Request: fold
Amino acid sequence: MIEVAVAILVVVPLACGLAIWALRLPNEAGRGAMAASIVSLVAAAAIATKVQTDGAQSAYGGWVYVDSLSVVVLVLICVVGVCATANSLSYIAHDVASGELREQDQTRYYALLMGFMATMLTVPVANNLGIMWVAIEATTVVSVLLVSIYRTGPALEAAWKYLVLGSVGIALALFVTMMTYYASTTIVGESGNALNWTVLARSGRVLEPDVMRLAFVFVLVGYGTKAGLAPMHTWLPDAHSQAPSPISGLLSGVLLNCAVYAILRFRVLTIAAVGSSYPDHLMIGFGLFSIALAVPFLLVQHDIKRMLGYSSVEHMGIIVLAVGIGGPVALYAAMLHLVAHSLTKSSLFFAAGSVVQAFKTRSMHRMRGLIRVTPVAGSVLLMGAFALVGFPPFAMFASEYGAVAGAFAHDRAIIGVAGILLVALAGVSLLSHVIQIAYREPRPGVKVRRLPASAVLSIVTPLALMVWVSVAPPHTFRTALDDAVAVLEGR
Amino acid sequence: MTNEFASSAIDVLSLAMLVVAIGIMWTRSLGRAMLLLGAQSMMLATAAVYAGLATNSQHILAAAGLTFIVKVVAVPAILWTVLQRIPTSHDVQASVGKRTGVAIATLLAVVFARTLGGQPFHTAIGAERVLPTAVTVMVIGILVMVTHRQALAQIVGFLVLENGMALAALTATYGMPLVVEFGIFLDLLMAVFVAFVYTGRMHVIFGSLDTEHLRSLRG
Reply:
């Protein structure tokens, strides 16, 4: 059963993308992509149920391995993927109608979107860390083409920076994969299995400590580039702001998670080999620095999508910081934060997309009265901003509280205090921008912009899911996070 | 073939790769940089053949074949096409002078040789000295990317980084499992192809491949 589900999960979007690309039917492309992403979501749900009831699953002779940590990443990719595809329907149609995209870009867009989904979905199901690397690198190559789909100078600039920096980062991550393979072959012998998570996790305790210590620095710098950790984040605000908004939602909401996922896997191996204090200190350092660096950029930002991009740098920092603090409470907080950030940020990017289309600018100086001009997108943007800066009752309040509580419990009070101050500063900056554009008096004579149902649903759904898991988390959700924490603790 | 012979051959080839990397740092002509890159990839493929023969391992020989096809034939062919198609100046601007650049690269080589000399890797074919060389080649690749203000030169720098990595992987672990190796080459080829598409677009939009044009997104 797991074989079938994993095959459907990855192959359906891939086949759909190839079919769209080969057949070039602009009118059917959107609907086909929609169907494929829904099928993937169903497969992901089936896998999640299976893993939750029967534990981690292997398939295809050990090439595929899905445990509770994979499932969290997997389900998020599919949920956000369905919403992004639904959002694309009206977004792309609008840009084609207004002449910003050409007819033929439409099929290219959906084909690449499906390819992007397929590569992302391969990351959490790969057992072999080498294959995981190949999949993460493939996400860069595919998504970079989506970033540059508007043929403008700035889009090309963003794509070029993303391609170059992303490739260097991922090359360093390949160096890590190689070092890990080296450390592993000295124990299990030279074989194709030596990079399998299932083999490495078992032999973790005996992996050469010196090699793993060196490797973890490269993990944080390499996969950290892809995860948008400062100071390697410089490509992120460019790429996330220049991409079409549904893609921005995917890049920020779930692609960053894939890189964080890789860091988390290597963290478990490193801890098994050298103990937790070394990787934890590094992660705390990178986490705090990313949050601190985002603050001034959030403060002076006037481009709404760049602002959301810098906010992603901040939130990846929070997740890495929480993982670095460690312990069951902070690790649970990190997983909760990862989920809440994905859902909230994708909603915000989708909403920002329709706001940008309504005002024909990304500059927040020229946006007024969002609540009245684009009621749905405006309110989602406002509510999402409150959720993002950690207001109760939203999940990110609980997760940030958990991370800080974990810091205090581990005699790391100073880190907790520094973290909370920086997060508060970042929050105030972001919120002040959003409140201004939401409530300023709209220009006289501006028409109220109505969104089609698919756009409304895609913008509202992720945020609604976030509210659901915030105020009344279902039992399965809490169990899923608990199980993921167990994987993070190497249990 | 004896292990000692293979090991010293790989040693010599790795040093040659380092010298070529410094040469790429030195040259300001794109055509010459690409020739040097092709030569470096050829050395890498040869080193892989030696390692494969010495250890009698077919998968290393297969990887050597892939290296030849992708890095010695396909990638230089793509880069050469760009160079021919774009009537731009084939000279590269760099933010550091020739002598400074080479001095930095040489300094790096010395520093890595001394600091990584006692590194924790012990390879079966006795090529311990190769790892510091490989890391230096990687860093020089990054240095080329950072200092050279031309899109194609940045790609060349990235490929030097890739070659250094492949050399490290070859000597530390006899390369990666073949499936992974295959995926790596596929990704590399796709990335170079995307870069190829972008250089064309860059030329249309900005009229040159100078990365100075790519500075509008700030803050």
Chain A touches chain B through 52 residues (CB under 8 Å). The two ends of chain A are 25 Å apart (CA to CA). The mean pLDDT of chain A is 94.
